[in-house]
Specification:
There is one protein chain. The chain is mostly beta strands and 155 residues long. It contains one helix and nine strands, in the order H-E-E-E-E-E-E-E-E-E. Strand 7 and strand 8 form a beta hairpin.
Length: 155
Amino acid sequence: MTLRTLSSLALLLLISPAARAAEPTPHGSRTGLGLILGEPTGLTLKQGLGGAFAVDFAVGWSFRGGGALDLHADGLVHPFQLLREGQGRLVAYFGLGPRIVARHDVAFAARIPVGLSALFDRSSLELFVELVPELVLYPGTDVILEGGIGLRIYF
């Protein structure tokens, strides 16, 4: 996905009449624990910070380059509630954070997650999907695109 496509999508969300700021977690619960499948695959923890803000942490396994331990932490903003239907809502989010990948050496990258969360009124569940452009900073520089789908349970 190109920067132009991401910019166009962001502009569309900004001008959408259905868009409005959204709580990032269900029922005012603040902490969610779950699984993410994709790149990486592993455990995810999301902590609501109040308002439209949250932090997301993950520890998992990267399947690129023969496999590696993958750690990341993202500051997230949930500025748009795109849809409110019956028993739930669909919330857009984006963020920024570091990523560390440890194989025989260590790699560092800056992540820019962009995603959608489905939050349910009568449940403590969050389903999410995200695309993550990354700027690899060390060793060398590169731009890669990753992503995943996941589920969190809030308590």
